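Exercise (ungraded).
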Amino acid sequence: MNSPRVEIINTGSELLLGRVRDSHLSWLGRKLFEIGLRVTRQTTVPDGGVIRDALLEAFSRAEIVIVTGGLGPTTDDITREVVAELLGLRLELHQETLNRIQERCLKRGFVFQDRMSRQAMVPEGAIVMPNDHGTAPGLHIAPTEGVSWITPHLFLMPGPPRELQPMASAYVIPYLAGLVSGKESHECRIYKVVGMGESLLEASVGLELSKRGDIEVGYCARPNEVDFRLIAPKAILDEVEPLILAIVGDHLVSDDTGSMEEVLVNYLREAGATLATAESCTGGAIADSITDVAGSSDVFLGGYIAYSNECKSRMLGLDPELIRKHGAVSAEVVEGMARGVLDKTSASHALAVTGIAGPGGGTPEKPVGTVWLALASRGDDKTIVWKENFPMDRITFKQMVVQSALDRLRKRLKGSAR
Amino acid sequence: MNSPRVEIINTGSELLLGRVRDSHLSWLGRKLFEIGLRVTRQTTVPDGGVIRDALLEAFSRAEIVIVTGGLGPTTDDITREVVAELLGLRLELHQETLNRIQERCLKRGFVFQDRMSRQAMVPEGAIVMPNDHGTAPGLHIAPTEGVSWITPHLFLMPGPPRELQPMASAYVIPYLAGLVSGKESHECRIYKVVGMGESLLEASVGLELSKRGDIEVGYCARPNEVDFRLIAPKAILDEVEPLILAIVGDHLVSDDTGSMEEVLVNYLREAGATLATAESCTGGAIADSITDVAGSSDVFLGGYIAYSNECKSRMLGLDPELIRKHGAVSAEVVEGMARGVLDKTSASHALAVTGIAGPGGGTPEKPVGTVWLALASRGDDKTIVWKENFPMDRITFKQMVVQSALDRLRKRLKGSAR
């Protein structure tokens, strides 16, 4: 099979109503790329009969179709039935699955409901993928030989990510890796660039690379950052990398697929340094994002969430008079917070932030979005203090502040770590 | 216009490669529902020519089509050009937009690149939606009268959420609200249910409600939680609510669309109570999720992120001997952390967690996923201490622990607050 096309169909009205944010595409997209496959299209349809149209369309375009959701026990879950009808397959009871469901109910103290047995009905000939984290099994229907039209490899998978992901890792990904083995594998390398717009990036290096014809070049702009994406065999990427590094230079945050947090944790580890934090307006988001990195406990000691003024004084030993005089959102207070962290912990670096996330609390002098940040380092009397203004919704505000704080520390560490 | 269908087309190879997770569908889905519109389908296509097929298909099905992305300055951004070609519209220079882009470059200290002027090219007759947070303007192409086939309302919008969202709020949503005004508006009410599976929920109340024919009933299962979703005019939802409350009873987390965090902040406010936290394995995620709620500063004082053992002792006054004897992940230590928070702050309630997020650090006695949680309340000598096991990836582990901690506090507050 030569470069099979993969389509993902997500079912679920909650996705279209905006009540749940899909994570399957990003998770599956990465896993499939790793084995040399590209998702060529993704579609979201509501619960109910529309799934039928979406399936027929995908069948006409793709060799591999992955459907998520609609395998539950309730009446709005009809993926299994629609597929069986569409392919002319009888639904048969799969005793082993029924036993698993009944055992699961017993173990968790739930009463077995008759309607749960629908989940044990399987289209004839389908391969059952057991679900270790829920009741609905996954189903794999392989292309049928000798029928008048050709069906793709069809995978029906449960909607909850913690059920789908282990099932995909155990079965779907290894199976598909076997199908496409031998294909020349491509690598996706993403250069995160800060302080250089995508136009300039394209003019100075991107255009030349895409003219070669053997590299797929892409750009994705984000707040303060552009992802400069190259897809090609590893040898070609290695060949052009020196050129990219020479042109992008200091604007480069990371030359691999690592996040800012991963880069920081590595830098700290290489420098033999540690970090602690004092957060007000971000409410722990800096620490939360760093501790998402496995192994961060090597370099992250802990932090203070000094949300109230009382906490700023009690946790960090800040003089209440300082807050009264300058306000909680001020250069003086954020510097005091950062120095307080160095006093109270053994960390080599301290990051502190205090600001107004909104929607309330702004004043003409300090509007919503104002934030003061500080970076203090042990053995260095000078604390770096800076101000930003991110007049966005609360969640984006927090993300931007986290990014600004981490990037400052990254720049400081860059010299010592590399 | 009677119940127009809305389709969203997301363009961007980064979405299909799994490098960026889409947020447009969930954001737009909610905003559109509020004005009486439902997204009937969403499609993701890569950068490049495929957008043409996706547009033609959407035109045949929907009255309103919203395209996100592909309006940037680089060569992989071709949405504008494809739409102009497809609709037979000439691209004309929009001088005002060109001026804005040049001014923006000046202000931000970027050199104006010739290729940026592509972003000022506008299909004839299109309405330009100015972009206050980036260079690419949005475009609205209204249905053309007198042509042989009917086009929908077409909105082309920039891909970055912080550019798209203000533009949609300022222009697209108000415009569409005007189009559909007068339509009977439906409400979407979501009952978050904990400890009652979706099968039982359907058997005991859901099936009866869906038989009525005037209520759309849906279920969405998540770790430890089911969203039980009803869509109907407000009067009908008010009518059936007592029945639901009677059956679901204590399993109900929230009877509105509020998140667990919003419910908690309200409960704390109503009870005149405050909260502080001590987190180890969650690294600030509990505090982070609470401080996502606007107004949380009324009730959330602050927290300690005691990630290292040293921090557990220094921040919370925990006897290092206790950690040596029982280990950092133990009932004794988590209780000490919670009591420490009450000692060190003036909070009325304290939540503490310590566990092993993995992938490293597990032992046969305390495998990865083990976590101890504690809830201590002022004036109550008894600390509630409990253990959970969430053997999942690091991010899901953190989410599950946050959920478990918040739910325990919710249950404690429920009596006093309501």
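Further reading is listed at the end of the chapter. For now, observe: DSSP finds 14 helices and 17 strands in chain A. Chain A touches chain B through 115 residues (CB under 8 Å).
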